[in-house]
Every structure is written in C-alpha cells, then in structure tokens.
Amino acid sequence: MTSGARAARTAVSVVAAVGATLLIALAAFFGLQQHGDARSEGASADGRHTRSAEELGSPDYGVCRGVSAKCYHDWGNFSPGTDGYRVLLYTRTAGPRHANLGPALGGGLNPALADSNVVQKALVEMGRKHGFTVDWTEDVTQLATPARLFRYNAVVFYSTSRDALDDAAQTSLRQYIRGGGGFAGIHNAFGTEYNWPWYEGLLGGANFYDHGPAQPGKVVVQNRRDSSTAGLPARWNFSDEWYNLVPAPSKVRVLATVDESTLAEGVTGNQGHPGHGRNHPVAWCQYYDGGRAWLTTLGHDAAAFSTDGSFPGAEQFQRLILGGIESAMGREPFCRAG
C-alpha cells in the first residue's frame, strides 16, 4: 500500500470514528432530554415530544425490575408482628405545589397540620381506620439515613415536586429499596427528581410530560386480582388531570387505565402530547431493585378524599391507594397477576 493510500485510509478511519462518536453523543443527548429538571407540572424540558419507552426500548436502569418476585430481596428488615405496620408520607415540594397538600409543613417529623393539608390528614386517618401508623414530613433530613427509613414498611411520595431529595436522601432511599422496602408514588411523584434515572426506574420507567384539562373520565380496571383493584368496579367515574408520560411505563403490571374516549375535552396535553390511545395507564406495580413499587398518576383534587359522595369516584380512588399502600408495605399480596 502506498503512503498516499495509507494516509487516505487513516483519514477515512478518523472521520468514521469521529462520526460514530458524534452519533453516540447525539443519541445520548436526545435520549436524556426526558430527564430535564426544567419540567414541572404543565411544562416540559424543552417543549418537544420526546420518544416513548417503546421507541427507545425498555431500559433496565441497571437493576432487576419487572413483575417477577425474583426481583424482591427479603433481608428480614421488617418485623410487623413486633413493630406493627408503619408508613412514612413525604410531601416535600421544590417546585409547583398542589393545593391539596396545603401550606408547606414545618420541620421534623409529624409537624402541625392545618385543615387545608388535605392529603396528609386523609392518609393519617386512612391508616388509623385500617390499623397502620402514618408519619408525615417534608423535612428531607428525615430520609437521610437507611436506619430511619427501615422503621417504615413503605414510603409514600404524594405530589412531591422537582428536586425533593438531597444526595444523602437519594442514597438512603436506594438502600432502603434494595433492603426490601416498599414505595408508593402518587400523582406528582412523577414530577420529581427528573435528573435521577434510578428514580425514573422506580416509577416504572415513566415520567410526567404534560396533561390536558382537568376533567371527568372513566377509569378502567385492567387487573381484578391485585390488592389495590380487587373489589373495584370494572369501570368507574373519576376526575383528574390524566397525566401523559414520557417515557411510558414498561416491564410493569398495568392495573388501571383511563378510557380516553370518555374525556370530553380531550387528552392532548398543554405541551402537545397526544395521549396514549387505548393503553393510557393510570396505575401499575412492579418489583424494583430489591423492593416493591406501586404507582398511580391519579390524585390531583382535594375532593378525591371526600367521604360524602359529592365527588364521583372518591370512594374508589381511596380504596385504590389504600390497597396500593398496603401491598407496597407487604401487608397484602403485592402486584398479583390478573
């Protein structure tokens, strides 16, 4: 081979290598747009509809995840027979705050609640009625060590937002889940920790993108045997914001969907997401990185916790999250096949 040919071949190889590196970088860039922390409820990171989980493939987030109990690790960290059942409710917001959370809470564990702290008071009462204790906090230091979290059979994030955890709490939550802990993520738990891929995986490989108008629709139960859906009607009326998700949940057991055809004002979100068609999930479950995770996008309206029948679907919603929390903490069978 002549020196000129060798030089030409070397130049082609360099160009090819640079091109491949550029393509990888671009793919990584556009794939990671779904984690942008600029998003909040009603706003996406860059205003574009990013690719779905189906288009990107189903990531494993470097952990065992799915509907098989083989992904659960029982390290003997919980003793309900001795300690009873206890849940930690976390409602810290570092961005938009849902009205049903009421005013921000004081520091420490179990700070004073106002009447407008609807979510906190409702879940405390739910625990009282059903024989488990609910502690509540918005103080990130209460999540700072695994030893603190292992006091609880499940941790519930209800409408947290944006960067609600610091580094210590992130590490602690992951160690807790790996130690067999339970997690329930409700409503804007999907608008939280956008820049942390492990947390996205905890949510079922899903993240909030946008939503259409808050409006009535029909929830369709897809799995009648799970602890959270057993006994619920096959279809029931409810009103919510009907979150659109990017990516959409994958490797999970979908428990309930919304029938998009029942949404009179449509499902197209305020950032242009067209909805999910016939498979628009609103509740699902999975085993994840050694623990249990039960998820629902429902729970926007304070009236969803009413008990007087004035809000259609309030009773069914409360039964749904009760069963989800009880199964996440291991008190009821978890993520049963339909």
TrEMBL record:
The chain crosses the membrane at residues 12-32. It comes from the Bacteria. Residues 120-326 form the ThuA-like domain. InterPro entries: Class_I_gatase-like, ThuA-like. Pfam families: ThuA. Keywords: Membrane, Transmembrane, Transmembrane helix. It comes from Streptomyces dioscori. This is ThuA domain-containing protein.
